[in-house]
Specification:
This protein is α+β, with helices and mostly antiparallel strands and 161 residues long. It has a three-stranded antiparallel β-sheet with strand order 1-2-3. The radius of gyration is 38 Å and the shape is rod-shaped.
């Protein structure tokens, strides 16, 4: 039967209380005390020696940072796609209005009509030129800019084929 000192320092699964008592008598702690029988006397992954304590927190923080960065990039790309679509729509409408003015369906100078229509859609006309066969080519740029730059649109319109 073990006494209190033996019971306190007994290593579960080792069956060698004498070695533990020698360490206890010297005022030291046996290396296997507090470890399971699988990791007793070993160092490395799976041991509880404290060298890897908190590494899961660092890993989780790093993963969260990567996810947030990916989300920010995705939002920037989505914003750029929306602005590019708006710029293309403004160019299309301005070119159609200018082509109608060129053919005499509506009144006004074709490029000034294109500038008015583009302004209604928060865009400015960068270029407007009349081509062969009563076609008009219009280049627009949105007034709003994203972090990735200004969105531009290009369209050509004319009479039906």
């Amino acid at each position: 039967m073990m006494g209190n000192a033996e019971r306190r320092h007994h290593v579960k699964g080792r069956g060698n209380a004498v070695g533990v008592l020698k360490y206890a008598a010297a005022g030291l702690r046996h290396p296997a005390v507090g470890r399971s029988h699988r990791t007793a006397g070993r160092c490395g992954p799976g041991t509880r020696d404290g060298r890897e304590r908190g590494s899961g927190t660092v890993l989780a923080a790093g993963l969260a940072l990567v996810v947030m960065t990916a989300m920010a990039v995705m939002l920037l790309l989505a914003q750029s796609a929306v602005l590019a679509s708006r710029a293309a729509a403004a160019a299309d409408l301005a070119a159609l209005a200018a082509a109608d003015a060129l053919r005499g369906i509506t009144t006004g100078e074709p490029c000034s009509v294109a500038a008015e229509v583009a302004a209604r859609h928060a865009a400015t006309v960068l270029g407007c030129s009349e081509g062969a066969g009563q076609t008009v080519e219009v280049r627009t740029e949105l007034v709003d800019r994203s972090l990735l730059g200004a969105a531009t649109g290009h369209a050509r319109a004319g009479p039906p084929p």
